[in-house]
Amino acid sequence: MATNNGVNVDQVLSIGTIVQLNGNNYKKWRADMDLYLLGQSLDWCLKEAEPVLVEDSTAQQKEHKEKWNRANRICILTIKKTLSDIVRGAIADKTHAGEYLKCITDKYQSSDKIESGMLLTKLQSMKFSMNLNIRKHIMQMINISVQLGDLGMSLDDDFMVYQVLHSLPDQFDSLQTTYNTQKDKWTLEELIAICVQEHERLKRNKAIDVNLITKPQWKNAKGRNQLNQTFIRSLRT
User: Fold this and answer.
1) Partner residues linked to 8 by β-bridges
2) Domain range annotation of the chain
3) Which residues does 5 contact at the CB level (< 8 Å), separation at least 6?
4) What is the mean pLDDT of each run of 10 residues along the chain (237 residues)?
């Protein structure tokens, strides 16, 4: 089984299986590209400056220059082949494959900052409504935090617990008070279980209140007396 710097070459991607960079999949594309170039023993030229020959350059230096030129050329062609037309047109041409790859990375790092800002704003503005599924609400918030982590902005569990509690309506104030006054912290799994339980309790209490309010007056003693008195007065008139 052939290996290259500890990498199993037999398992390395072929150029045909490298996902095309289309604007929304940079991380996947970059991982595929790095693995392919490593497996093809081409990645060394990305970090090495172009060799410069002088009049008294040795045969070994000239040979190294030829190898670098070939590896660099293959890298540039490989990178361009895996870019969509739109992405390729947005990247300035470079003669050094390492510089060309850096231009692509810089473009997407800038995009990542914008996307991170949008996701963080969305997370902080999320509010739960009592007629929704609270487990799904919390999972959606956790999913956003995972996306932020993929973009280099990791949010710890304590922050997420605070953010979820902050997204709940006033009916959950007692839950927030309990969390703020106790010493132990909740994990996200514990938070989900506690919120689901509290949501169910609040819904049951609301159902009881609604039944009490909408219960017909004739079903209680006071209501029956009032109804009888009204009926008797109607007979006397």
Assistant:
1) 3
2) 3-110, 126-197
3) 38
4) 47 79 85 93 94 94 96 96 92 94 87 82 94 95 90 89 95 90 90 94 73 45 49 45
